Amino acid sequence: MGLRIDKSVAITVLIVATLMVQVRCQRPKVINLGAVFTFDSVIGRAAKVALEAAVSDVNADTSLLQETELRLFVEDSSCNVFHGSFAAFEVLGKEVVAIIGPISSSIAHTLSDIAKGLKFPLVSFAATDPTLSALQFPFFLRTTPDDAHQMSALVELIDFHGWKEVISVYSDDELGRNGVSALDDELDKKRFRISYKVPLSLHADENSVTDALNRSKSLGPRVYILHFGPDPLLRIFTIAQKLKMMTREYVWLATDWLSVTLDSSLSGEDTFKRLEGVVGLRQYIPESIKMRQLKRNRSMNAYAFHAYDTVWMIAYGIEKMLNEGVKITFSHSKKLTHAQGHKLHLEKVKIFNRGEVLLEKLLKVNFTGLAGQVRFGSSGRNVTGCDYEIINVDRTGVHTVGFWSKNGGFSVGNITWPGGGSEKPRGWVIDSENPLKIVVPKRVSFVEFVTEDRNTSTHHIKGLCIDIFIEALKLLPYNVPYKFESFGDGHSSPNYSKIIQMVSDGVYDAAVGDITIVPTRSKLVDFSQPYASTGLVVVIPNVYDGTWIFLRPFTTQLWCVVLASFLCIGVVIWILEHRVNEDFRGPPRRQIITMIFFSFSTLFKRNHEDTISNLARLVMIFWLFLLMVLIASYKAEVSSILTVQQLPSAITGIDSLRASELPIGYQSGTFTFEYLTYSLGMARSRLVPLDSIEEYERALKLGPNALGGVAAIVDELPYIELFLAERTGFKIVGEPFMNRGWGFAFKRDSPLAIDMSTAILNLTETRKQKRILKKWLCKKSCGEKSDWNQPEPNQFHLKSFEGLYLFCVAITVSAFLVFVLRMIRQFVRYRRSERISLTPRASLSSSPTTTRLWGFMLGFVEFVDEKEEATRSDDDSNNNPSQVVELQGDSEVR
Ligand SMILES: *[C@@H]1O[C@H](CO)[C@@H](O)[C@H](O)[C@H]1NC(C)=O
Ligand SMILES: *[C@@H]1O[C@H](CO)[C@@H](O)[C@H](O)[C@H]1NC(C)=O
Ligand SMILES: *[C@@H]1O[C@H](CO)[C@@H](O)[C@H](O)[C@H]1NC(C)=O
Ligand SMILES: *[C@@H]1O[C@H](CO)[C@@H](O)[C@H](O)[C@H]1NC(C)=O
Ligand SMILES: *[C@@H]1O[C@H](CO)[C@@H](O)[C@H](O)[C@H]1NC(C)=O
Ligand SMILES: *[C@@H]1O[C@H](CO)[C@@H](O)[C@H](O)[C@H]1NC(C)=O
Ligand SMILES: *[C@@H]1O[C@H](CO)[C@@H](O)[C@H](O)[C@H]1NC(C)=O
Ligand SMILES: *[C@@H]1O[C@H](CO)[C@@H](O)[C@H](O)[C@H]1NC(C)=O
């Protein structure tokens, strides 16, 4: 071609050439290239056409390899490593400078070993196994990006849709395994993971594929990543359809094998129907004239374009090598001559001597090919990657719905998902055969929060936390089958760290209960948003502020009785004394005042008035005795309140508690222990585990000096509120600290944690949560939280003085009766004497009995009201009136 030039020019060129550029004359007429790949494959069919086209295009190109013809020897590697190796030796026998191929990554592994041994470049256009880039294979090059590249595109797609766990289905060979391993690495960067791997044998029969897919169905994730070589039959989708896995909740993502398959075959409506909703990647190759020419052959695909570029790349490499004057020589390889395989006649194979040089030139190639820029990165032997289109199959065909660029651009539009919907599948489900296994703490105290009903027949788990969990579940847009399992021995509080550990270890999927969100725990599991806020508080025995402390020793009832008895005593003494004692006489107002003052002044034995009648004195003796006992008890109690209980009030919060050396109680099993020891640095010996409300009360009552007693309890607010509602005499001091919340714990990266958080946030806005709180926590005390209604544990009750009171009342009543009887006797006598001295009242005798009785009663009352001397003057005049006067004077003197 280059020889058809003007003669004069030719002569000039010849002279110059012979003198200076001898090299050019030594250009060989023919340079052979080998190609080894599977002819009968989706890629192979197209690649063959592309390779042949490329060779003829290179030979036709006037600027490249002018005097040299490129010849291509192709050999079918079939689809296995044996055939591949033989085919390679077959083409090596043709004195080739480099080999193109293979397609299969497994064959590529073997051939690159041979290439390494015999030192010839092996350039593949379709073996995408990422591990082939390893330093182990220095003579292996490829013109197509490796799978790691498309995996990062896939992961971006996964991330975009918010899926966290995927199931990978792949061919169990180098391509599949290493591709999935690259996927794993990419997922790992985003903390996503492959939760299940389904390796399929290349030649697996339908049943084993069905079984493998069916097994994966019972797992949670519904995002399937398909990675294998092109499969013209698209068998996997047929099987998935049979298993009803091409439905709404499933996601099928395919690497570029799917686009290659679809592009290379005639797909009808039937195929599209079967593949509806599948999303895949397709290498983005800009349209060009050459491409359209090639595409006239219907089986073209991206890898065929890479094959086309490969030939050009090698041509550029050879051109550069020839330009540098490298001679194309071949020789028998010693390695092959000494090989044991004489029967294979490998010794005849001649190997290109300057393979290393060619490799070096190839790595420096930089040109724009059909499929984009062909240039090897500075870092290694992998070609700079390409961009990907995101394709989506619906009933009408294959559509491009998005784009992923290696430079970081990503966009995706409306996607039709399996089942024909456009709503993004959630990507995971909880199978009803595999319900969510939830562990709940089997509380023994504060069972309002959560516990297992100790009902022998039915294991029923209930509590505040359970109700909130169930309410939150109702807000989720999907159904979550679950089953509860309780944890704990039923005698002591369960170990909450253990519960979290078990969720982290995968024994359970989640934990529901009064679980505080603390950093050590959120390292192990994912928490939902807190549904209740808590904080640690310090509880100490209550010390009343001085204002009402004097009322405290007695119960209200007892105070009332004491007050009433003062009044009664006043009345009784007045009645008994009224007749004989001048002090108790006078105008009614004065009498009432005297009466009240008298009774109250008995308290201090400072009564102005003395009792005269024996009956009154008797009553007074017992009353004073009762009073003495009451006062003594009161004094003792007041002093105990003021002395013993004043002591712990030095604790005003966690800081003073920390500074002290007093023993502290905590709820066993909770994080409080770790917090107090690790974070606050308190000595373990100071901490006393407590299990129930009763133990709380007992330990606090015992006080810091007794064995098992504590000066204060540190626990979370909700428990303490419940404790204070049930027991009085204790109080919270200081501010709550370590403000945290209670949340539900889920296995790491569980998608449920996020949805549950949304639901909980929603729930807290509604009245439902308040209703639940009220239902569980307000059974006893909400609303009427008054310390005075409940008897103080160390108060005196009426019962304590009942006997004494009864005795006193008996004496008083009998004294009163004696008095009344005596009065009646005196009255009768007085009436008789009066009737004798006065004219009988006829009107009185003639009136009706009731009136007469009334008159009699009035007379009696009048008689009783009168002073004794007045009634006595007639029948008992020797009674000395001086006594009264004397007494009166006496009292005035005092
Ligand atoms: C090329 O391959 C090397 C080694 O295998 C790898 O570290 C590097 O990330 C790859 N570069 C690209 C652009 O794929
Ligand atoms: C799939 O597995 C389930 C049990 O997990 C079984 O009942 C069903 O028959 C299996 N389906 C097929 C097609 O094997
Ligand atoms: C496509 O390529 C195949 C294989 O080389 C060939 O048999 C077929 O005729 C070609 N078809 C067209 C339309 O060029
Ligand atoms: C490769 O070629 C392009 C233009 O074709 C050029 O812009 C680029 O800098 C070249 N790269 C290297 C590494 O030479
Ligand atoms: C996606 O769908 C919405 C509504 O169905 C439509 O408004 C929008 O144009 C669509 N976007 C694309 C890129 O097709
Ligand atoms: C046990 O369960 C039954 C039915 O759920 C209930 O009626 C009964 O009160 C429960 N007993 C106890 C001790 O909780
Ligand atoms: C609770 O469980 C954790 C983790 O299993 C363990 O380290 C800790 O010692 C346990 N605590 C008690 C008090 O048993
Ligand atoms: C909260 O619930 C209401 C009604 O139940 C619903 O309309 C709303 O979308 C929910 N919000 C969130 C953030 O889930």
UniProtKB/TrEMBL annotation:
Its main location: membrane. It comes from the Eukaryota. Keywords: Glycoprotein, Ion channel, Ion transport, Ligand-gated ion channel, Membrane, Receptor, Signal, Transmembrane, Transmembrane helix, Transport. This is Glutamate receptor. Gene3D superfamilies: 1.10.287.70, 3.40.50.2300, Periplasmic binding protein-like II. Residues 868-894 are annotated as: Disordered. One of its GO terms (cellular component) is plasma membrane. Belongs to the glutamate-gated ion channel (TC 1.A.10.1) family.
